[in-house]
Amino acid sequence: MPTKSASRSATKTTKRTPARKATRKRATGVTKAAKQTAKKSARKATKKATAAKKATKKSVGRTARAVKAPARKAASRKATTAKKPPSRKATSARSRQPDAIALLKDDHREVEQLFKRFEKAGDSAEREKRRLVDSMTAALSKHAAIEEQVLYPWARDHVKGVDDEVLEAFEEHRIVKWLLTELTTMAPSDQRFDARVTVMIELVRHHVKEEESELFPDLRDAAGRTELLELGDRLRAAKRTAPPVPDLGPVGVVGAAVEHARDVGKGVVDRIGALTGIE
Questions:
Q1: pLDDT digits over 161-205, tens only?
Q2: What is the count of structural domains for the chain?
Q3: CATH number of the domain to which 159 belongs
Q4: What is the pLDDT of residues 129-156, one digit of tens each?
Q5: Chain center to CA of 156
Q6: Cα(105)–Cα(247) distance, rounded to whole angstroms?
Q7: Do both 138 and 102 map to the same domain?
Q8: What's the start-to-end Cα distance of the chain, in Å?
Q9: Are 143 and 104 in contact (CB under 8 A)?
Q10: Are residues 104 and 146 in the same domain?
């Protein structure tokens, strides 16, 4: 039989074993928790480091793109300008510009308004008449210049059978420019001032009527829409540098002007003859 002491010892051992196991479990649990916490902390630190690297790369990438973007855009614009045809907007804007015939008709309407205002001015409106004649001189001088430099040479080169019309138009220009030159130095109070202006107005109206009823329709038939637009561009460019004063050309044109004016009408010829003393 076992002794009492042995029995006590076995009892003690049996009683201590569960407590030790619990202690060990607690210690093991603490160790595992610590390890897990350490692992989580390590993972978080790794994620933060990775995120920081990515952020740095993105920042560097954005800076590089920001620096390169203007150069790329400039290169892209150059390539686009070189490769692409004119945009629809540019083409549309150009098509809205008046063609050669419309531009010249606008000039005709402008001077006609000046003529009507002069004709309505009273006998005592000398300052108004002087201002109107100066405006007529600038407008008609520029108009004549662009027709002689651009329109008439183009018409003779591209329209059949207009040589006589163009030569007649040149002569009518010479008469009008001569009268404008005389009016430039003449005071509105001069008794011949109104008469000269009236003769000049009649000549211009005759000239406009012939151009719009004969020459312009011939131009419209001979030229396409694109050609008339290009001709209009050339007329506008010439007008920017055209002189606002008459260019008489060679001296001694009065006699030839009067001879040509006989085709315009007997009344006009008589008035030019009376003004110049040429029969």
A1: 999 999 999 999 999 999 999 999 999 999 999 999 999 999 999
A2: 2
A3: 1.20.120
A4: 999 999 999 999 999 999 999 999 999 9
A5: 31
A6: 22
A7: yes
A8: 178
A9: yes
A10: yes
What share of the chain in percent tops pLDDT 70? 57
Torsion on CA atoms 189, 137, 212, 274, rounded to nearest 10: 40
- Which of 84, 114, 148 terminates a domain? The answer is 84
> Does residue 27 surpass a pLDDT of 70?
no
Considering only CA atoms, which of 219, 244, 218, 217 is closest in space to residue 231? 219
Does residue 66 sit in the same domain as residue 95? no
Higher-pLDDT residue of 104, 25: 104
Q: Domain end: 84, 118, 144, which one?
A: 84
**Contact in structure between 220 and 102 (CB atoms under 8 Å):** no
Q: Determine which of 62-66, 126-130, 182-186 has the lowest per-residue pLDDT on average.
A: 62-66
